[in-house]
Amino acid sequence: MDQENQKTLIINEPSLQEPLTQKKFVMIPNVIMMADNLSASAKYLYGLLVMYAWQDGCCWPGQKRLAKDANTNDKTIRRWLNELLVSGLVTWKRRGLTQTNVYTLNKLADIGWVVQQETASPTATPER
After folding, report:
1. Is domain 35-117 classified as CATH 1.10.10.10?
2. 102, 60 in Cβ contact below 8 A?
3. Residue 10 pLDDT grade (very low, low, confident, very high; cuts 50, 70, 90)
C-alpha cells in the first residue's frame, strides 16, 4: 500500500515538518478548538495571540495590528477579545494611554468550563 492510502493527512509542507522549537506555526489546544461556547473567530484570535506570545514568551500586539493580521477592523477585534475575556481564556492589562495592552493567556486548568469539557468527554473521532 502506498503512503497516500495509509494516511488520511499527508504533510508535504516542509515548515510543518520542522521541530516544534522552530515555532513557525501555532498550536491551539483541542479543548478550545472544540469549544461550542466560542465562535470560530474568537478561536482564530486566540491563535493569533499564541503566535505573538511564542515570539518572545510575551504578548502585546495592538488591536490595529491584530485587525490587520485578521483582515478585519478594530471593533471586530474588540468583540472577539471580549468573547475570550468572558470565556476566561484571556485577560489583559492596559499599559497606558496610546500603548498596547499586555495580554495574558490564562491557565486552562483554572477555567471551569475547560476542566468540565476535558473530563466529561473523551477525544472525539471525526465522522466519516
Report:
1. yes
2. yes
3. low
Structural domain spans, the chain: 35-117
Burial, 111: exposed, middle or buried (Cβ in 10 Å; 0-12, 13-18, 19+)? middle
Indicate whether 33 pLDDT > 70. yes
Bigger pLDDT: 35 vs 25:
35
Distance of CA 62 to the CA centre of its chain: 17
Q: Name the pLDDT band for 105 (thresholds 50, 70, 90).
A: confident
List phi, psi (to 5°) of 3: -55, -40
Which pTM was predicted?
0.75
Q: How far apart are CA 29 and CA 128, in angstroms?
A: 23
Please report the DSSP string for 45-84 in residue order. HHHHHHHHHHHHS-----HHHHHHHTTS-HHHHHHHHHHH
Q: How far does Cα 72 stand from its chain's mean position?
A: 17
- Please name the amino acid found at residue 20: L
Of 125 and 60, the structure prediction assigns the larger pLDDT to 60
